[in-house]
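Posted in: Structural Biology > Protein-Ligand Complexes

Title: Requesting predicted complex, oxa(dethia)-CoA in pocket

I'd be grateful if someone could produce the 3D structure tokens for the following input. Sequence and ligand are given below.
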Amino acid sequence: MSPSPAFTRGIEIAGVGSALPDRILSNKDLETMMDTSDEWIVQRTGIHERRVHDPDTGPNTTTLATDALNKALSHAGMQGSDLDLIICATMTPDMPTPSVSCLVAHHVNAGQIPAFDLNAACSGFVYAMNCAHDMIRSGAHKNVGVIGADLITRFIDYSTFGRASAILFGDAAGACVLRECDKPAKGLLAQSMHTDASRAKHLFIPGGKNDFFEMDYEERRVLRVQMNGPAVFKFAVSTFPKLIEETLDKAGVDAHEVHHYICHQSNARILTAARDRFGLPEDRFYINIGARGNTVSASVPLILDELTQAGRVEEGQKIMLLGFGAGLTWASSLWQL
Ligand code: UT7
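-- Reply #1 --
Done. Output follows.
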């Protein structure tokens, strides 16, 4: 992060919003679709149900993203026409082109502003928050809509063959409005972004039969999530604490000074392991995977919105956003609110 010498203002999270499909897919529903059980799913993941789109009636990634951004704008007391940039983190755009952000800019009446999608899988929203912050800090933008939106269940095989990933994922969108403000203390205290494609084959969605990393797979896996669950699990359990430590060190902040650790919701066991490692109480390391599942780039803003609506996010607090996912990618963003 290289602040513009001219930038003496702060950057605030002015509004937060989220959107979910109406349709609930419970563990009991999954029991009728594949060989699994509510008990197995709850024990291994902490998930009871997730929201999923209806392929016939929607919503789609763009409508969920628009809904979430409109709510964030309304929370900030702003309109689409106040935005001068939109970044949407997604790995499941409705179409290869145009981008989700381009369509959202149109739907919120933002005018002919720049808008682009960013793909860092489940780390995408955290990447997007860091980019948006630094683009404001450069002096180029003042009001940025940042979205995390994914309809990952488009790429799930709901048969026993695909059960290890079918039970994990749900659809959702979340959004923030970042705004330049006159309190210089507000903004990012530290950030980290990483990739490691030597482990890309642990979690990927092949686009065609040549995209299997030389693995001997059947063609029915094309356009379906391929995951080595135990390998991803191991990676996440060791990465979350390292990422937290790295970010605290960069900022010179103690773990207990952070009011909320807002982590990508991958699996309750991964999250409780990280929470226990730092001896943090449950109310600082909130877990909502039970009713949402793993919603890819939407999981971090969904939690931020839930905590905000519950009145638990206040000016003066420090919050850390954390993501990890396919790529492999991982990222953090430590904010002074
Ligand atoms: O956003 C990041 C994305 N991904 C993650 O964070 C995923 C991280 N990994 C995980 O959460 C876990 O690895 C899973 C929940 C995916 C799987 O749990 P696990 O404890 O690692 O199970 P496993 O893959 O080692 O499989 C153990 C057994 C196998 O049976 P056998 O070979 O022991 O007879 C699986 O076939 O559990 C079986 N199994 C299931 N059984 C019932 C796998 N999925 C299911 C299922 N229901 N849905």
